[in-house]
Amino acid sequence: MAITFHEQSREFHLTNGKISYIMEIMANGQMEHLYFGRAITDRESFHHLHEEEPRSLMAVNVPEPGTLSLEFARQEYPSYGTGDYRSPAVTVQQENGSRISAFTYVSHEIFPGKKSIAPLPSTYVEQDEEAETLEITLHDPLTDTDLVLSYTIYRDYPVVTRHARFFHMGKERIILDRALSASVEFSDMNFEMVQLSGAWSRERYVKNRKLEMGIQAIQSLRGASSSEQNPFLALKRPEATEQQGEVYGFSLVYSGSFLAQVEVNTHEMTRVMMGIQPETFSWELQAGESFQTPEVVMVYSGRGLNGMSQTFHRLYRTRLMRGEWRDKVRPILLNNWEATYFDFTEEKILAIAGKAKEAGAELFVLDDGWFGARNDDYRGLGDWYVNLEKLPDGIRGLSEKVEKLGLKFGLWVELEMVNKDSDLYRAHPDWVIGVPGRFESHSRHQHVLDYSRKEVVDAIYEMISREIRDARISYIKWDMNRYITEPFSRGGSPADQGKMMHRYILGVYDLYTRLTTEFPHILFESCASGGARFDPGMLAFAPQTWTSDDTDGAERVKIQYGTSMVYPLVSMGSHVSAVPNHQLYRKTPLDTRANVAYFGTFGYELDLNLLSDEEFEQVKDQIAFMKKYRNLIQLDGDFYRLQSPFEGNDAAWMVVSQDKSTALALFFQRLNKVNASWLRLRLTGLKEHARYRVCCSLDGAQKDNAQLDRVYGTCGLPRQRVLEAYGDELMYAGIVISRDDLNRKGGDFASLLYTIEEIKSGEA
Ligand code: DGJ
């Protein structure tokens, strides 16, 4: 791994043998991007990759007779107003109203390792040898402001991370109207843009579009990364698939409003930009003040979308997540939300927890409704003390009783919110975000606390940390159930208003930092009406996220498939819930509900007391199965998407152990078909010449489908499909899938789960 500066050509080459990222200092002193992609051999100069020609109408950025025009230069961090008419990465406003800036090279530093950018979350290294960092200092003389562009290349990953920092030294104040994290340019537009778009209960659906001239962007203006758009985009070559071809992934380590944009000019140059949403951002800097942007993680893959995702998965699991839970399999939990909603007593809770223990679960989570006057969602948020009418022995008493049952105890909180009907609001009406004199929009009857103010974060910290200290809490589900409207801080000056949205999220990170530092053993799961804040920023604090409020197994296939584009399986909260499903009223087979939930953290979201004996036995088997395979799924394995639920009736994915000796594959069909075509499942990631035993249990099916048993007779088909085959056959010829098996599994929304174990020599 090396970052080289070629003195003569004034070029930088970041490479680790997998990728190259090359830049030069242009004739006008600004930074130009020359190449990002598969590693190429280093040489003294790549200047020939700089393209420059005189063109009519272009603005020239160097003295006569030069022809350098920023309109046609691929820049590293473009600014507004000096001849480049595309969207800039930065706009600096001076006191006189000028919005022009030109940052030129001053110096650079190359050092081993990677610096933290706390309080912002970012990827990190454990040993300096894992990465090398380049910091390029640029200067704008008129405003007397330094801009430092940081680049880190990881030794073991095809990854470059970037962020920018501003240091203002001039006497005049300046305003950063726009300060994105990174800008990267490509010399052609032969790409498709992949994005993860959705809404509540259908988060992160995969969308593809061919790049067109002009701007194509996704964004959030909501104060949270949002379920509508995820802070991620990829550019893939049109011929790239899940398994092969070139893909570039860009992921922003940030949980607030963002912009991710691709602009193609009419000369077919493609500019990708990402960072804090400029629309709600305006950051004043006085002399001596600085500002740093969040981090963008850029991945190159020559192995298709799966190659990109596997890099994100490994990096985020091991070098973004942190804390005691990073390398641990996750407890199998039961959450009472869909079992009781607000309607519970201690007795009811203990009955549910007791049955969960009997089934083999390890953690019971008490969801919303345990505090203040919270008997519905109109009241109580903000009053973080237990409701003794529901829980006479408090959270402490309940947590002790749950622990006596042999389970760990977890608790739900929603610390950023307040209901107007609460003691907290009555005492501090000015702590709510909103513009005095204007209507305050409500959402789920609640309002957002102004976390841009330290006193608000302090007060919430005091209340909740007391409750946590007092009880026996092993897990916290940190929820957030509405977006920000009327963004205005009642505690702020006019200049503070442009900082409010970013400071809000810094306040959230601050509270997370305090709680995770004080209670390092607690497993945090972030949540935002399901997956409205499923982003890398959150994962740096909470190593798992509730993926979606949609708990239907069939819908989860799509949601988890899309989420896996960036996020590792261990980060996806995934539960089995009751039928008819509470969001869709669908009756997805229990077997499928579990088969899909296995590919995540796994748990239950229902009252197991209400299951039949047969179903309860099935649940016990499921929990035992997950205990056996969770290390593979959550920590060890590489995940491969095989067939997209967005492109057809069927979907498939698999996870393969590092040593390729064990794998699990899921095949799912949405609607059943009669007298239909043959089905094949081609696996991947196995050893070509190893022999494997492939098993697919049909147990759940027979119990689920007595009707069909009458047709076929219970002995008509085996209870388990077993196949022995070499890896190459499984990958290239594939497994024949029997439609009878799918019928027996319930037909619509049926799934087949295959365990694949290498047969070691000497074994029968
Ligand atoms: C939204 C979450 O996503 C649900 O799981 C549940 O915790 C509710 N909030 C509680 O209000």
Automatic annotation (TrEMBL):
Keyword Hydrolase: yes
Active site positions: 479 (nucleophile), 549 (proton donor)
One of the Pfam families matching this protein, by short name: Glyco_hydro_36N
Signal peptide from the UniProt entry: none
Record's keyword annotation contains Hydrolase: yes
First-tier enzyme category under EC: hydrolase
Domain annotation Glycosyl hydrolase family 36 C-terminal: ranges: 651-755
Residue stretches making up the Glycosyl hydrolase family 36 N-terminal domain: 29-286
UniProt catalytic activity: Hydrolysis of terminal, non-reducing alpha-D-galactose residues in alpha-D-galactosides, including galactose oligosaccharides, galactomannans and galactolipids
UniProt keyword list: Glycosidase, Hydrolase
Domain of life where this protein originates: Bacteria
Gene3D superfamilies: Aldolase class I (3.20.20.70), alpha-galactosidase from lactobacil brevis (2.70.98.60), Golgi alpha-mannosidase II (2.60.40.1180)
GO terms, molecular function: alpha-galactosidase activity
Binding site for substrate: 200, 367-368, 444, 477-481, 527, 549
GO BP terms in the entry: carbohydrate catabolic process
The enzyme's E.C. designation: 3.2.1.22
Family: Belongs to the glycosyl hydrolase.
Protein name, per record: Alpha-galactosidase
Organism this protein belongs to: Candidatus Pullilachnospira stercoravium
